[in-house]
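Sat 14:20. Reprocessing the chain from the morning session after the first attempt stalled halfway. Input below, unchanged.
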Amino acid sequence: MGISLKQAIIVADSTADVPKAMVEEYGIHIVPMRLSFGEESFVEGIDITVEEFYDKLTKSKELPTTSQTSPSQYVEVYRNLMQEHPGTPIVSLHISSGMSGTYQSALLAKSMLEEEEGVDADITVIDSLCATYGFGLQVVLAARMAKQGISPGEIKAEVERVGKERRLYFLVDVLEYLQKGGRIRKSAAIVGSLLNIKPILSVDQEGIIYPVDKVRGQKKAVSKVIELFLNDLGDRKDVNIAVCDAVNPEGAEEMIRLMSEHFTLHEVVRTSIGAVVGTHVGPGTVAVFVWPA
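Finished this time. Tokens:
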């Protein structure tokens, strides 16, 4: 196993939804995303809390817009870290390139710094191919490996390996936000709401959200999610789990309880779905991420 002379610095964008306590414990550098409600602009996690975001979302007629972090912003982040920690490698992880251009911004920032004379830019950029804590679990894994002095190349290889074994489902509570975001037609949203339809979404190997199923009623939908995990994982019963919710803590706790009846849960992480994903799935959504223990 390769040991780095200096512990790698871990950078991630705020869409990883890593709980604050873990960010502080592992010294992860979070680069916040920006979002706007009309003329009002906010920095995720700084100007607006998760609760404030969902409150605004439910009151707003239009969906907020989110803007990816620019290459120049990443140049500034990387340059500041290199000046503060000379000769220290940086491992930078990002929301799926299938959902945002942030990964491309980070790659461009890396190449811009590499072209600068006298700059030793030891930066490894990783596409998580996921969002919220499906991405966050990779950030935390990278940070734990960095603390052990493991080299950036091996961190990247392990993070990508775990990404391939990760399984996840989003259980959407209301159809309004999928409709507003153009993912379903208005007529389908109206009929679906009347029939109490609950969509189940996932993320494919290219990091793109896709519909898995739609089930009538909350109880049946939760049972379907459990069934999907049982099919996905086969004989594997020892797992880590993260459950993220959009202002639906009761739904999240119920999901953990039901998963514990079928699997041996090792690490259990609870966190919130942030603004970027929350804009499209809406309040009430519960997301479950499972990866090998």
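The two ends are 20 Å apart (CA to CA).
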